[in-house]
Amino acid sequence: MSEKRIAAFFDFDNTFLAKDSAAIGIKYLFKRGDISFWFILGIIVRSIFFKLNLYSAERISRYVIRFYKNRDISEYTRQSEIFYKEMLKPHISPTVKERLEDHRKKGHLLILITASLRYILEPVVKDFGFHLLLCTDLEIGKDGRPTGRPIEPICVGKNKVIYAKKAAEEFDIDLSKSYAYSDHHSDIPLLKLVGNPIVVNPNFFLRREAIKNNWPILEHY
Predict the structure, then answer these.
(1) DSSP 3-state of 206
(2) Tally of domains in the chain
(3) Which of 12, 62, 170, 207 has the fewest CB atoms lying closer than 10 Å?
(4) One digit per residue, pLDDT tens: the chain, 221 residues?
(5) Are 159 and 62 in contact (CB under 8 A)?
(6) Burial level of 52, CB count in 10 A (0-12/13-18/19+)?
(7) Cα separations (Å) of 43 from 34, 58, 207?
C-alpha cells in the first residue's frame, strides 16, 4: 500500500495574499464605474460587524456575490490576468510564499482553499503552481448569467472542512500530517482538521485560539 500524501492548505485573503482581494477588487470596480456607492457602503458596514465577530464570513461572502447577478462574467474573466498581475501579485506575502516553496520542495500537495471566486484565483494557481484550487463558484442561470448566488456549499468557514475532506479522499491525503494556513477565526474548523495548523497575521480571535493551542504564528513582512 502506497503512503498517503501530505498536503498544505493555504487560505488566500490576508494569508497568501497580505491584503483582502475583495477590498482591492471593489476599489478596482468602483474606478471602472461598475459598482455603486451604496453597494460599497453595504460592504463597509458589514465588514465593520465582521471584524467585531458580529457578522459571519459566510454572510459577507454571500452579500458580495450579489454584485454579479445578471452580469456578463466573461468580461471579468478576460481581465482576470491583468487584474492579478497589476493589483494582486504585488501583495503576495513573502513569508507565506517561502512556506509554499518549502512545501513544494518536500513534495507536498499544494492546495489553495478560499471563499474567493474562481476567475480571480486561476491566475494565482497558474503562477505559483498550486496543485488544487478549492474555492467559491458562481451559480449560473439558464440564461448563462450569474444568479447572484454561489454554488453550494460556499467555500468559507466550517464548509472548508467539507472541501478539505473531499480532497483528502480523492487525493489520498493524510490530514493528520498535513498543514493549513489562515488568518481568520472562521477557519478554526479547518485548522483543527489538520495535524499542523499555522496562523498568519491573525485577527484577535484567532490569535487567542492560537495561543491557547500553541499553534505557530507567522507575521507578514
Answers:
(1) helix
(2) 1
(3) 170
(4) 568 999 999 999 999 999 988 889 888 888 888 888 888 888 888 888 877 777 788 888 899 899 999 998 888 888 899 999 999 999 999 999 999 999 999 999 999 999 999 999 999 999 999 999 999 999 999 998 999 999 999 999 999 999 999 999 999 999 999 999 999 999 999 999 999 999 999 999 999 999 999 999 998 76
(5) no
(6) exposed
(7) 15, 13, 25
In a domain, 190, yes or no: yes
CA distances from 173 to 96, 148, 159 (A): 21, 33, 18
User: Which grid cell is 139?
Assistant: 451559480
CATH number at residue 68: 3.40.50.1000
Nearest to 115, CA basis, from 54, 163, 79, 71: 163
Contact 123, 81 (CB under 8 A): yes
Provide the domain limits for residue 68.
Answer: 7-218
**Considering the domain boundaries, does residue 2 fall inside one?**
no
